[in-house]
Amino acid sequence: MAQGTTHTAASVDAKAKSWTKRDTEWMLTLFGTAIGAGVLFLPINAGLGGIWPLILMTILIGPMTFLAHRGLTRFCLSSKKADSDITETVAEHFGPKAGSLITLGYFASIYPILMIYGIGITNTISSLMVNQLGMETPNRALLSFVLVAGLVGVMTCGQKVVLKVTNALVYPLLVVLFGTSLYLIPQWNTAQFEASVSVADFVKTVFLTIPVLVFAFNHSPAVSSFATAYRKDEGDNAEAATNKTLKRTAFMLVGFTMLFVYSCVLTLSPAQLLEAKAANLSIMSYFAQNTDSAIFGWLAQIVAIVAIGSSFFGHYMGTREGLQGMIVNKAKREGRPVNMKLVDRGIIVFITLTVWAVAYANVSVMGMIESLVAPILAMILFIMPVYAVKKIPSMKKYESAWNIFTVIMGVVAITGFIASQLL
């Protein structure tokens, strides 16, 4: 009997360590959710304070990204029901009132970002058509509707199709980021190393830039769907299997994204980065203007389109879950039955029409809204899972000194983000 048990445990452990096509698909989906069009501004925002703060942030951001997302995934897996998403798990552990409040925060922190992507994809495609293809300015109402409806349409085709489409978008993104990083290497210089920085400026730069990197690497909107999918496939072995995928996702994010950041930062001087920041130019647009190379203009559009597309899908998952959770929780409190098919259709229509309306209107305050909701997302990603470890019996086994690190970094991210809006 003991030998049989040992053999079963060994086979389960071996399965957790093996890498499958499903793991690759989810790793790319999580990567795609994290990397939005903001990656084109990341070298400017992260490199503006000099190379030394950037080195420290690079050391910190990998563990921060992995530990925070692992904590949230473990929380999603802690439900007694195998098919529970994050909103149901929150209600199960913290009660209906607290559950509704956290679910509202979860929805409010992701939905505005989805709307930002609706604006971004419309502006990028319109710019591509006019500047690169030499076409007339398209009808914004029609263009924005086709793009938003097309992206939402993919989401209605089921998880397998979404994973395949997301993966297809991420590959060109990886090629462009890695290719640009290598292309710039011959132009690297020591200007960044020669720039002097005081201890006060060093600390201030790290404090204000860590939030930028946290949200550049944030893939929490897709974590609930990711955890549910693994629990369905792996059962009790889901936690070990998700850890493996999350670890490789974090390595991939740090490797590809930070190589791109370093390559851009080491190519430009501090003065040039300031110039790009003042002009509100993406790094590719700055290179295009200063090298007379049209290829950078094309690459900027390609990165923006595929990054927005892949991020849209991940944020749609989170928005749908949050909205569905609020509707179901309200119906349960009022003792009314829930027609899930009708709810899902209503959510599809609501998201399509509202994101289209905002994309058509080209609202300019969305960046401000994003800044206001970002601390809520950091609370859910960094603080809530660690609090759950203390309060939920089934999660007590995850107590670790790393939780202290996660909370401290979460507080730094939240306060740094608030401070960046006030300064």
TrEMBL record:
It is a multi-pass membrane protein. The keyword Electron transport does not apply. One of its GO terms (biological process) is amino acid transmembrane transport. The chain crosses the membrane at residues 26-44, 50-68, 101-121, 141-157, 169-186, 206-230, 251-274, 294-316, 342-360, 372-389, 401-422. It comes from the Bacteria. InterPro entries: Amino_acid_transport_2. GO terms for cellular component: plasma membrane. It is found in: Cell inner membrane. Keywords: Cell inner membrane, Cell membrane, Membrane, Transmembrane, Transmembrane helix, Transport. This is Serine transporter.
